[in-house]
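User: Could you check the structure of this?
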Amino acid sequence: RSYTPIAPKVEPRESGIVLDDIKELSHPALLRYLDERCIPIEIARMYCKQVHYHTKNNPDAKYFAIGFENNEGGWELRSPFFKGATKKAATYFNNFSPTLVIFEGFMDFLSYLAMPEGIIPKVADANYLILNSVAQAQNAVNDYQRMEEWGEQHGFHGKPFYKVHYAMDNDPAGIDATFRMANIGGVVGNAGYEDL
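Assistant: Sure, the predicted structure tokens are below.
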């Protein structure tokens, strides 16, 4: 058996963003943005909130964006004019499935959920991992290795997931992240699309 060292975890970074309010998505500009991305509001409201915030440098300027919470309690923020985060980390939805689908960002995840059957292959009731940044790819590999080691120590043999689908962007960063995560499971790409 070959030895693969577990790389150090990339710690979540704090940003200069300060949260003011979190509420249900309702602002017309954000709803229009979702509509332009072909994401139904019903799907977006299941996973996202409307986040109001300011920056530490300019507390008087108030902003708002679509917010998607990550596993470190941070928020990925998107609007027609801004892409950022309060703290960078991945988001994992455990549906107790033997299948895992990995997405680069939360807009890819929402687009996937919104796509009608037949456009791309979809996996019902899968577990979902949204990296929220390709920089989180190494953390995904480390977490998977820890899950395998825990399983072996507790008498569970085999892989934590039998099938892993990668829905990463087909740009250099997405391709590189897919290759870094390839030891997690079988590679099923997004059929040559630049973005979901």
